[in-house]
Design brief:
The chain is built from eight helices and twelve strands. The strands form three sheets. The protein has a seven-stranded mixed sheet with strand order 5-4-3-6-7-12-8, sandwiched between helices. It has a three-stranded antiparallel sheet with strand order 9-10-11. Strands 1-2 form a two-stranded antiparallel ribbon.
Amino acid sequence: MPTTSALTATVGEDPLRILAIHAHPDDETLYTGGTLAAYRAAGAETAVLTCTLGEEGEVIGSTYAQLVVAAGGADQLGGYRIHELTGALQALGAGTPHFLGGAGHFRDSGMLSTPANDHPRAFLGADPEHVADLMACWIRWMRPHIVLVYDDAGTYGHPDHIRAHQCGVRAVHTAAQQADTSVAQLREAGMLADPQWTADYQQRHHTVLTPGESLVVEDDALSAAWDVPLVYWMMQSERRVAAGLADIADAIPAQWTLPAACDIFATDDAAATHTVTLDSAAYAAKVAALQAHATQVTVFQAPEGPVSFAMSNNIAQPLLHTEEFRLVRQSHHVDAADPTDIAAGLAAIKLETDSAEWQPCDESGVSLRPPQTC
């Protein structure tokens, strides 16, 4: 099993920077947690931009069951999930939470055709172009060399995942084509409420605020255009999912049910271009991060057996030792041919902020979804 020392962690003289864009807390761990942990351990800088607080999540157990909005609950789940996300990111070494628009600006839309779709702050109801513009502000500030987004089907089809995919792809294009336009735009993007952004700004200006003093932000806070060299969609091959389900078949709690591979997130075996194999440390970090999302996920491991997990529906899923991706954008003539390292080819290049011509995502004609057989 490869170790993190084999992964690319620098771009020229700078540390590699990876940004993962996710819809809800826990998604960062489920789909990219091991990758973020592995590259951070190798020396890269990793970050997660979360679009909503996951207010519509179904709570496991009775301890925090009344935090939900359903059945007259307190509608406080989103705030609690900030706490869970903070713990998960700490386990992954991915810094502190960053929220699109600021914490609570956009709301979890719930599944399609549910009342949550009509909430005035629902992420699904926001103008996609405007959302992409706000995401682009974060990209220009973070200047990532790699952006990770959902596939075009939004993993398991959640409308917020699909919208995050659409807006994330567009945001990469927008960030490459134009600079920030105004401090007001940064404020709307949530950056002036972000502790890391404000700390960086104060450090650059040698400013120390006294208690109660407001930060005055000038136009020098605006960032130039940034052309992200590599963009990947998150994948999970049906073959690996099926093998993982077979491994856990006799090692799950009695109240859990075992699905078919096509009933959970699985993509065509030929769709992924890169596979990150998690070493023991990265895998352990992913397990710890998933355990931090205790209102949403139950993690189980039989003695000497494989690790599995389930959401509130008690449908068992294997916690795989791999995370897969499909390269969909490649600029600056980066050689990304090494299928085991999503940053391969970046180490020796010199990046400029000049915009590269935008290449539409995935023109290969390869179906990203396996044939439905069940």
